[in-house]
Amino acid sequence: MNVGIIGIGIYLPTERMTGEEIAKIADIPAHIVKTKMGINQKTIAGKNDHTVQMGIKAAKDAIQNANIDPREIDVIIYIGEEHKEYPLWTAAIKIQEEVGATNAWAFDAQLRCGTTIMGIKLAKSLMLSDESIKTVLLAGGYRNHDFIDYKNERTRFMFNLGAGGGALVLRKDVKENIVYESEIITDGSFSEDVLVPVGGTKEPLTPEHLEQGLYRLDVLDPAGMKSRLEQKSLDNFIKVIRNSLVKSGFNESDLSYIGMLHVKKSAHDYVLKAFNLEEDNSIYLSDYGHIGQIDQILSLKLAQEEGKLHNGDVVTLVSAGIGYAWGAVTIRWGKE
């Protein structure tokens, strides 16, 4: 029983923030932003680019790309961020209403920037375990750049955060873009390293917090986190890709394309080199920034448009999210 990707959708805001603008606000050299951080420009949410709304636009694009009636969708999984139109709200049900998936049921899932990989694994598991579920829509949006303080040096590695929406349509018993096995690693030793320190039950939001600029992403132990992450992060990238391939029955030499999140250029190149791949075997998202869990969907879409994906190619999507969580899933691209 196969599960394949039959539709891909992307929505990108028209507004952009350039590397030069980031450099000026953050008071760092422009060449550092462009070469080390790898940001030529990034997408920025406009006035009406709300998180779930961007996911809805991407979902409609994916449904059109799949050439299906939305009433054929059985389940919708929201894979976007928790930072959205309302603080307490089930976004997937709103997507269901807006796309016209009247026969579906819907729920939200969350693993930060690892949510797309986890969502694909979850969607496949649902289809394999329940014969009534044949078509699943994954959709979501992201605009966590709202939480970035460019004066805070502790959060420099997140200056690449952008905005956008992405969606995938998965279907059971098809012979195209077959989803194989995934691998996910989570490490709770990082669970409270990166967070918004106020606005939750431990520290309810006050006017003073807003005045002090505390309602922003921050790193509580930057030196400790950097030291621990350097010991694990790149190794875990390699591990999840390798294990996903092995579990899927492929060799490392079979790998043709890696759909990778936006990270600093040296890390991107390190992962490619580990699998004897060239720059052409991936797309570095330097003109988009890091759109969270949407990166893998965007990479697939761009690779398809640029002719980088060929029938029979082995493709692995890889993610990493604060928490920390690393994930990968392998796909055999094209039609059998």
What does this structure look like?
The structure is a single chain. The protein is an alpha/beta fold. The protein folds into 2 domains: 173 residues, 3-Layer(aba) Sandwich (Peroxisomal Thiolase, Chain A, domain 1); 156 residues, Peroxisomal Thiolase, Chain A, domain 1 (3-Layer(aba) Sandwich). It is 32% helix and 24% strand. It is built from 9 helices and 13 strands. The strands form 4 sheets. Strands 1-7-6-4-5 form a 5-stranded mixed β-sheet, sandwiched between helices. Helix 1 packs across helix 2 and helix 3 crosses helix 4. The two termini are 14 Å apart. 48% of the residues are buried. One of its GO terms (biological process) is secondary metabolite biosynthetic process. It comes from Ureibacillus manganicus DSM 26584. Keywords: Acyltransferase, Transferase.
Question: What attributes characterize this protein structure?
Answer:
alpha/beta; 336 residues; 3-oxoacyl-ACP synthase; Peroxisomal Thiolase, Chain A, domain 1; acyltransferase; 2 domains; 9 helices; globular; five-stranded mixed sheet
Any idea of the CATH class of the largest domain?
Alpha Beta
Examine the coordinates and then state which fold CATH places here, giving the name of the CATH topology of the largest domain.
Answer: Peroxisomal Thiolase, Chain A, domain 1
Largest sheet: 5 strands, mixed
Q: Roughly how many Å is the radius of gyration?
A: 19 Å
Fraction of residues in helices?
Answer: 25-40%
Lateral arrangement of strands in the main beta sheet: 1-7-6-4-5
Low-confidence stretches: none
Number of helices: 9
Quote the average pLDDT.
97
Task: Tell me the CATH superfamily of the largest domain.
Answer: Thiolase/Chalcone synthase
Distance separating the two termini: 14 Å
